[in-house]
């Protein structure tokens, strides 16, 4: 059984310089309370791995605005002009990765694979410096795993075992990142007694989750 | 009819019943408005839903249900919510029948550039590279020229989205099919002559006999 952590206590687990896998797509399915607490404690030099950086004032965009971030690995930063400005000024190092490749690199880390072979990016800027491997006459890029010190997830419901259920398009990267963080912190909308979530509905088994955040006030 | 409507209507004619289709943000998303009622398809939003529905009435949005542009949407009966690995697995794995995407440039090889303008616009490729590399059919829906300058070129000058020949280019002036032999002019747009199209296109076009007009 897991005791739910206070938001501030969860944020205090995260040291400066850590690599964070953060769930969410344009802020949908991001752990917003945890992000607010990381901003409030004045974290620095974080590496953020996420699909995107949302927009200024929302989700991961708040970490960018507050100067918490020195590196970003993402598929899209187009809706956050602040991320682009900080990339151009050199304050933040940005690595752009195709979305399907990004999620598989995270999954590879989480499921013990040494990388993945993908046709995505062949013949584009993405292939620069990467090994190409031909399988059955078709060319693929070797893409390497991305591990996180922490995975910060948002979920719809949790139980006190840590089992997680997700809602609609708020799944996105969350169930995959749950596999790839050394420490996994989940922020559910609500926490229900053990047994309330049907085993068939559990998308992230509780054994992957180290800490649950207390439910929203 | 404005340019975007011409393009959206014409692209809608390419959609076959009972398929899975992914529409890009902006112009491509308008295609859904022109699908005949009897044609049932599932639209995929790559952020995690198969069976994307219309915009919800104001005040009835679900904050956990958006399209890939972040706009609130609904889901149709029979919809499925999926995570990003499943979503892009469907795209790369050959399970997505068609994607419709906007374009900055397309060239004689049928290669598409639509994700960055070096030094000006570096938003990231998002899902575009996976979509172009993986979808069974790729349709480029774009206006024919940008500020009077051709967008269909001998060779793309902008960074490519994939090294893959797209299936069809639909503009307000023309329907063009990239083939092994080059770009074949299939149809002309409303009030546009073959000469008009050749003038507005840098790439060489293959013209076979009388080119039919779009039937909108």
Structural notes for this entry:
The complex is a heterodimer of chains A (217) and B (216). Chain A is of the alpha/beta class and 217 residues long. Chain A has a single domain, classed as Glutaconate Coenzyme A-transferase. Chain A contains 6 helices and 12 strands. In chain A, strands 1, 2, 3, 4, 5, 9, 10, 11 and 12 form a 9-stranded mixed beta sheet that branches. Chain A has a 3-stranded antiparallel beta sheet with strand order 6-8-7. In chain A, α5 runs parallel beside α6. Chain B has a single domain, classed as 3-Layer(aba) Sandwich (Glutaconate Coenzyme A-transferase), CATH 3.40.1080.10. Chain B is 15% helix and 26% strand. In chain B, a hairpin with a 2-residue loop joins β13 (174-179) and β14 (182-188). The longest helix of chain B is centred in the N-terminal third of the chain and has 10 residues, at 3-12. The N and C termini of chain B lie close together (10 Å). Chains A and B meet through α5 and α6 of A and α2 and α3 of B. Chain A: This is Acetate CoA-transferase.
Radius of gyration of chain B: 17 Å
Using the alpha-carbon principal axes, give the shape of chain A: globular
Give me the oligomer status.
heterodimer
Specify the CATH homologous superfamily of chain A.
Answer: Glutaconate Coenzyme A-transferase
Q: For the record, give the distance between the C-alpha atoms at the N and C termini of chain A, rounded to a whole number.
A: 21 Å
Give, in order, the helices and strands of chain B: HEEEEHEEEHEEEEEEEHE
- The CATH homologous superfamily of chain B: Glutaconate Coenzyme A-transferase
Question: And the CATH topology of chain A?
Answer: Glutaconate Coenzyme A-transferase
Tally of separate domains of chain B: 1
Organism (chain A): Roseibium aggregatum (strain ATCC 25650 / DSM 13394 / JCM 20685 / NBRC 16684 / NCIMB 2208 / IAM 12614 / B1) (Stappia aggregata)
Keywords (chain A): Transferase
Family (chain A): Belongs to the 3-oxoacid CoA-transferase subunit A family.
GO molecular function, one term (chain A): CoA-transferase activity
């Amino acid at each position: 059984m897991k005791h739910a952590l206070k938001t501030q206590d969860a944020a205090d687990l995260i040291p400066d310089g850590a690599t964070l896998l953060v769930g969410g797509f344009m802020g949908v399915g991001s752990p917003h309370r945890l992000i607010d607490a990381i901003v409030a404690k004045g974290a620095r030099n974080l590496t953020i791995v996420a699909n995107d950086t949302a927009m200024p004032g929302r989700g991961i965009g708040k970490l960018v605005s507050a100067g918490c971030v020195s590196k970003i690995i993402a598929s899209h930063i187009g809706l956050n002009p602040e991320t682009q400005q900080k990339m151009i000024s050199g304050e933040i190092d940005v690595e752009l990765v195709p979305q399907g490749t990004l999620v598989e690199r995270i999954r590879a880390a989480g499921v013990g694979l040494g990388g993945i072979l993908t046709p995505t990016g062949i013949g584009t800027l993405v292939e620069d410096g990467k090994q190409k491997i031909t399988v059955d006459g078709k060319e693929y890029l070797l893409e390497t795993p991305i591990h996180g010190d922490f995975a910060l997830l948002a979920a719809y419901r949790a139980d006190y075992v840590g089992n997680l259920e997700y809602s609609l398009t708020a799944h996105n990267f969350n169930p995959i990142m749950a596999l790839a963080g050394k420490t996994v912190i989940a922020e559910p909308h609500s926490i229900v007694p053990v047994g309330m979530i049907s085993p068939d509905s559990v998308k992230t088994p509780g054994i992957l989750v180290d800490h649950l955040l207390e439910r929203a006030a | 009819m404005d340019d975007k409507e011409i393009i959206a209507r014409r692209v809608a004619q390419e959609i076959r019943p009972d398929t899975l289709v992914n529409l890009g943000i902006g112009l491509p998303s308008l295609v859904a408005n022109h699908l005949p009622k009897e044609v049932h398809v599932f639209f995929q939003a790559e952020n995690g839903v198969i069976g994307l529905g219309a915009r919800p009435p104001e005040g009835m949005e679900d904050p956990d249900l958006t399209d890939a542009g972040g706009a609130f949407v609904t889901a149709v009966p029979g919809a499925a919510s999926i995570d990003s690995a499943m979503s892009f697995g469907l795209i790369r794995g050959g399970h997505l029948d068609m994607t419709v995407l906007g374009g900055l440039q397309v060239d004689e090889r049928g290669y598409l550039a639509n994700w960055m303008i070096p030094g000006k616009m570096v938003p990231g490729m998002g899902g575009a590279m996976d979509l172009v590399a993986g979808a069974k059919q790729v349709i480029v829906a774009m206006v024919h020229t940008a500020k009077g300058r051709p967008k269909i070129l001998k060779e793309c000058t902008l960074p490519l989205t994939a090294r893959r020949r797209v299936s069809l280019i639909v503009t307000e002036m023309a329907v063009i099919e990239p083939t092994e032999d080059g770009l074949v002019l299939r149809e002309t747009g409303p009030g546009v002559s073959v000469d008009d199209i050749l003038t507005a296109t840098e790439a060489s076009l293959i013209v076979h006999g009388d080119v039919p007009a779009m039937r909108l």
